[in-house]
Amino acid sequence: MLMRTDPFRELDRLAQQLTGVSGTWSKPSAMPMDAYREGEEYVIALDLPGVAKDAIEIDVERNMLTVKAERRPVTVGDDVQVELSERPLGVFSRQLVLADTLDTERIRADYDAGVLTLRIPIAERAKPRKIAIGDAAGHKQIGT
Hints:
Elements: H1 7-19, E1 33-38, E2 41-47, E3 56-61, E4 64-71, E5 90-97, E6 108-112, E7 115-121
Antiparallel strand pairs: 1-2, 2-7, 3-4, 4-5, 6-7
């Protein structure tokens, strides 16, 4: 049996179940994320604990990246009595506007240990490049 020592958490959970709206102590719709640049690509890491790989959907339309994930309930047998259920279930989503300097055609996605990692290369057109200076031998100088 589990001991409940935080009456406010229990009230928040009960209010969330009744109204479907999250209170101030928990944010079940959050999909925590880190984003950083690593060499020639941007990396986005999203926490999705308890979500099966086949329950994750990633879409890109123009420069809008959408990640949807569904945490499904764990099926329990007839002889199991649930004492406490605080982990949020349902569909979660996160949308990110990607810069035009990213190559959305070559996004890679990996999922390991409850973390979805997206790697987005920097587009070739956005990388710094050297401009060669041409030879001016064929041009006439003014005044000669």
